[in-house]
Amino acid sequence: MWEDRLARDLESEIRKIPLIDPHSHIDPLRATASSLDDILGYHYYTELAHSAGMEQGPLAADFEPRERARAILGHMERIDNTAQYGWFLDIARSFLAFKGDRITQRDADQLWDAAQRCMSQPDWEEQVFRRSNLECVFLTNQFDDPLEGFDTSRYVPCLRTDDLVFHLDTGQVRQRLASVTGVEVGCLAELIEAFGKLFAHFQNHGARACAISLPPDFIPTPVEQGDLDRLLERSRLDGALAADERGVLARGVFWSLATCCREFQLPFDLMIGVNRRVYRGGVYQGQDLFDQRTSLIQYTELFNAFPDVTFPVSVLSSGQNQELVSYSWIFPNVVTNGHWWYSNIPAYIEVDSRARLQAVPKTKQIGYYSDAYRLEFVLPKYNMYRHVLARVLADDFVRAGVYNEHQAIEFARLLLRDNARRIFQV
Amino acid sequence: MWEDRLARDLESEIRKIPLIDPHSHIDPLRATASSLDDILGYHYYTELAHSAGMEQGPLAADFEPRERARAILGHMERIDNTAQYGWFLDIARSFLAFKGDRITQRDADQLWDAAQRCMSQPDWEEQVFRRSNLECVFLTNQFDDPLEGFDTSRYVPCLRTDDLVFHLDTGQVRQRLASVTGVEVGCLAELIEAFGKLFAHFQNHGARACAISLPPDFIPTPVEQGDLDRLLERSRLDGALAADERGVLARGVFWSLATCCREFQLPFDLMIGVNRRVYRGGVYQGQDLFDQRTSLIQYTELFNAFPDVTFPVSVLSSGQNQELVSYSWIFPNVVTNGHWWYSNIPAYIEVDSRARLQAVPKTKQIGYYSDAYRLEFVLPKYNMYRHVLARVLADDFVRAGVYNEHQAIEFARLLLRDNARRIFQV
Amino acid sequence: MWEDRLARDLESEIRKIPLIDPHSHIDPLRATASSLDDILGYHYYTELAHSAGMEQGPLAADFEPRERARAILGHMERIDNTAQYGWFLDIARSFLAFKGDRITQRDADQLWDAAQRCMSQPDWEEQVFRRSNLECVFLTNQFDDPLEGFDTSRYVPCLRTDDLVFHLDTGQVRQRLASVTGVEVGCLAELIEAFGKLFAHFQNHGARACAISLPPDFIPTPVEQGDLDRLLERSRLDGALAADERGVLARGVFWSLATCCREFQLPFDLMIGVNRRVYRGGVYQGQDLFDQRTSLIQYTELFNAFPDVTFPVSVLSSGQNQELVSYSWIFPNVVTNGHWWYSNIPAYIEVDSRARLQAVPKTKQIGYYSDAYRLEFVLPKYNMYRHVLARVLADDFVRAGVYNEHQAIEFARLLLRDNARRIFQV
Question: A155-180: string of b/e by CB count within 10 Å (b at 16+)?
Answer without folding.
Answer: bbbbbbbbbbbbbbbbeebbebbeeb
